[in-house]
Amino acid sequence: MVSPRPLKLRTQVGRSATLPAAGDLPVARVLVDTGVFHLDSTYDYLVPENLSQSAITGCRVEVEFGHAKQEGLVVERIAESSNSGPLKMISKVLSPHVVATGETLELFSDVANRWAGAPYDVVRSAIPPRVALVDKESFPINDSSVEFHANATLPTELQKKKNVRSYWHLPPSLSASQALVELAIERSRYGQVLLVVPDERMRIAVVEELDKQGYPADRVAQLDGHTSRSDRYRDYLRMTYATARIGVGLRGSVFTPLENGSTLIVFNDSSEHYFEPRTPGWNVRDVALLRTRKSLVDLVFVGYSPSLELGRLIDLGWLSLIESSCRMNIKAVEPVLGELLPSKVFDVVRKGLKGGPVLFLVPRKGYASAVLCRKCRNISICSCGGRLAQQNKSADPHCVICHTVYSHWRCSWCESDEIYIAGRGIERFAEEIGRAFPNYPVIGSSGEKILASVADLPSLVLATPGSVPLAENGYSAVVLLEGIKFFGHTDMRANENAREVFFSTASFVRPEGEIAVVIDSSHPIVAALTRWNPAPMIRKELVERDELNLPPFYRYITVGIDTKESIEFKNGLISAISHGRIPSSTKILGPHEGEDSRSRISLAAPVSEAEELVAFLHEFQRRRNISRKELLFIRVDPYSLS
Fold first, then answer.
1. What is the pLDDT of residues 526-547, one digit of tens each?
2. Largest CA-CA distance found in the chain, in angstroms, rounded
3. Using only C-alpha atoms, what is the Rg of the chain?
4. What are phi and psi of 214, to 5 degrees?
5. Cα 467 to Cα 452: distance, rounded to the nearest angstrom
6. In the chain, which end has fewer C-beta atoms inside a 10 angstrom radius, N or C?
7. Is-contact 358 349, C-beta < 8 A?
8. What is the C-alpha separation between 131 and 406, in angstroms, rounded?
9. Domains along the chain?
10. What does the pLDDT look like over 232-280, one tens digit per residue?
């Protein structure tokens, strides 16, 4: 194993330049898209005099690297290089526009170090591909003011001009898109606003709400891969040049350049959508935290229940908590074994139907996620090993893997042909609820069919998490079915996700509406919803996590490696601990053999010491690349440890 020693590859030496170099600051430090993991430093190039005015910090250039032409970003211009030999020249400036500021260039490097990756892998996620036609456009700074008065309904702390670093716990009966837009418009009085949301559905809702509240469309940028390539690049440049005042985007937009005094708003920080699947696997919450530590940008997290990572920062006082505590009308309904719709829920539903739509939240989409034998309860398995499921009551069971249909199904154990449905989904609930409350329309929203809104009429609306349609005046009642199943997942984030789902779904109720939760009345979520305050649950879980050395107090790193190398790698880590090259507190779990001859090793270290461990793995990865060995699959702070 090796000690982390940063490589110092900082120049590209070539034949003497034939063009005259720039008279002022003739050397450019360039971050080059080398495509080689260990060649991740900046490199010095001469700037030709004819490119001196356009080869500025943050612009895209083409340079010769080795014997190939590669794209790069100018990081800075300097008077002279520390290399004594001749330097290669920048071939050309690819775009007249600045696509990265000094602050975002530093952020790319910080993110690469934080997640043990290469800076240009971060750049590819952060900066949209260039479009030649858009490059010909100009983006003058828009000095026209947009008159919006201070929003007196917002918490006082969010109306401050600067030094805002908060988590805003949203109140009930206020749509998230409306709250986000009101906050964004308020903050836009002081500077640019970047609003990051987890999915396309919320992005559309926010943009529509901005239009509804009369905010000028020419001051809004949509920073999203769902728009056309030209529009995405154009809107990115509009934010970079401060032509746009409010930017709304998904995960990658968190890197968008902002002027000093701007505000970065992140909605629902615990969403899985915020975790970048590509290497190096950064996430929006931690990038936002990194960004505000080194720049003059205010930071506001908004949501119904914070992640444990933010809960820890709130307890430390690093983030202020803006509460929206109030008393909610909550009715806990004890679940009855085998009963799909507990009878005690009926009164809540009947009362709600007198005034408008009633919302039911169910854990799963589909009809049935598992087929059992009614007689012996044997789980039905296909010959390929996959479980059998059922799409609707009259459908034959089918395999979830190979899709084989069993039109004459019989239990492989007792030969019975009677089916018992387990893991009931939204369509099975729709059948039961429709029978229990006839003469009312049953409306479903899940999977590929997600509704944006429903009419303000008496109806039975069923939805899965993240698929709840808006009701114009809110729902007259909300029923959270099979509550314990939301908390029953094996994933370490199960409680965190369930809290967010329960609070966000309950927020759709009208101020006078009732919420029924099918769960034991002693469960802490009942008291949390009643007081509209998730903090006690979060603090309790943080205490437990701290005692068990789990995130967010320990940083976890998963390493995927060829099974043949796994034992040697683990022994090398043990040796590195004994020689003081990585923290002595480092825990090593595994290796655990998986599929395709791959194994996984998990490492953990206290947050205060984890940077040293990540730096060691980062350098080890570079050395493997130099030796032409396969790179390890490294994920720092992954979404799931399962």
1. 999 999 999 999 999 999 999 9
2. 89
3. 28
4. 85, 15
5. 8
6. C
7. yes
8. 52
9. 27-134 (3.40.1440.60), 156-322 (3.40.50.300), 330-546 (3.40.50), 554-636 (3.30.70)
10. 999 999 999 999 999 999 999 999 999 999 999 999 999 999 999 999 9
